[in-house]
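Narrative summary of target 7.
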Amino acid sequence: MNDRITKILEQVPAVPGIYMMKDARGKTLYIGKAKSLLHRVRSYFQESRTLSPRTRVMVGRIHDIKVLTTASEAEALILESNFVKKLQPRYNVLLKDDKHYPYLRLAVREKFPRLEVVRRVRKDGALYFGPYTMVREVRETLRLIHKILPLRQSRDPLDGSPKRRPCLNYQMGRCLAPCAGKATPGEYAAVVNDVILFLKGKNSELLDSLKRQMDHAAAELRYEEAAAYRDKIAAVKTVFDKQKIVSTSMQDQDVIACHCEGGCAMVQTLIIRDGKMIGEKNFKMQSRKEMADDEILSSFIKQHYADDAALPREILLPQPIEDLDLLADWLSEKQGRRVRLDVPRRGKKHRLVKMAEENARRAVKNEMESDEARLRALEELQNALTLKSLPQTIEAFDISNISGAHAVGSMVCFSDGRADKARYRSFKIRDVRGIDDYHMLREVMVRRYGRMIEAGEPLPDMILIDGGKGHLNVARRVMLDLGLEDKIDLAAIAKGKARGDLDTDEVFATRHNRPAAFGQNSPARFLLQRIRDESHRFAITHHRKLRGKKSLQSPLEAIPGIGKKRRLLLLKTFGSLEGIRRASPEELKTVPGITAGLAQKISKRV
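Modeled conformation, tokenized:
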């Protein structure tokens, strides 16, 4: 332990809060919370402390420690969750798939509510139903509701006054047409109530409601309407028959389990609402190796439920975790009612946890098999191109421009055969004018790797260029100039004779005079093509964005000396850009701030 760390530890207070371990470049390595910052932070540097290899490596890199104090351990828990999500520290266990579940929102405070798909649950007085594991499920539920119950689909804000003529849905009996003033709030409220019963899975209540309406229509000799209700009852019964009841308690539950093997960790969630299994989802956890199950589960709960207001009443876990009661109190406060964290030892709940554990184990196996396939592709690539090392990190470049205009360079990164989008970079070409792909490529590569050398960042194992031998030679010269010729492997992939046929693509490497030979169904060749296509897609996307911004630019903005104030004065005086074009230099000079020289420039360039 050096003097700097010793001095920092002397100043750490014995109060609740969070601590952030940083390396020499100021990058956050790890974020944790503590009831007593003094005891927790010091524990990392005590010789008697038994640390895991992962933690020992991290401690060796600590250069600075920042602490934030809080009023309570509960506040520290919230702060830790927020900072981990924002900064994504390298040594924390991170939830990789952090997409929010889709929900259905019913704004019951409106006169004529409608259903909409949302990703976030807010405390706005609306009713939220879900979560659904896939958008496809949500769309199917919406389709069924609009088929069975005449809820409006239009997005217009309605106050009861007619807005337009009834649409086709009204003619088909699928809407009461409140937008045309055809339904009273009371009539529409009855439909909304049936929708709520459907979404809550209140089978018998919904069927009773529809049967009453069918009988009422039949008693009044409205037989077509009664037949329509009969068909709706049959459709509802079909939907409910497909739902799997897994709990007789009819509770809202999330069942969470994890499995870790070979550095891969997956968390499985079973989502149970009103006793029915409505979905399941796997989440991949990302961290250094040697993750403990309780650490994975604790980190998952903090990150997964950080923004989720629609919490179940009960969360089932396979084992006790650190701060179990504290997490339960935090979730209960978020929900406004008690949320239990339970570790069942027997019975139906225990069997649900075992089911989740088995699913997590299977997900890890599938993930590892997928990893093995990617590893085989990388090994084939190393052999086919005679690379110095396994290309675990590949960076690929492409240039995009139209006749030299709006030129951009793109760089995509693939780690272990997977797209690593957080490391994608785009470059606006600064120094090259006209059509010159070679010099543009050189500029981009010099900027990229010159910066990495200066910052001491780890270099990629391989660089892939979208192009032929000429582009490869440019890349080779850049590597020589930067002193990287023996550190990074180079390759280029070019379209073959039949540009639309991927089988004719040619791959060139620095150690080969001829294109490399790959089998017809070579995983390595498919990987290179996928990387090339992704770099091309990323370059085109950036180029279009740049071109779009340029097309929205006024010609006045390109004239030196014409700032925002003068631009506005010109437009105010002459009414439009066309008016400025028609104005003579003498007329332009009448505008305050426009000199004779500026007037001449405007006449020539607008």
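The radius of gyration is 32 Å.
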